[in-house]
Amino acid sequence: MLMMHSIAKAELSLQEDDTAAALQQIDTGIQQIGEFCGECLREEHGEAENITRERYLSNLIEFRSDLETLDADATEAESDEEDILAELERLLNEDEE
Question: Which of 21, 37, 56, 58 could form a disulfide with 13 if both were Cys (CB 3.0 to 4.6 A apart)?
Answer without folding.
Answer: 21
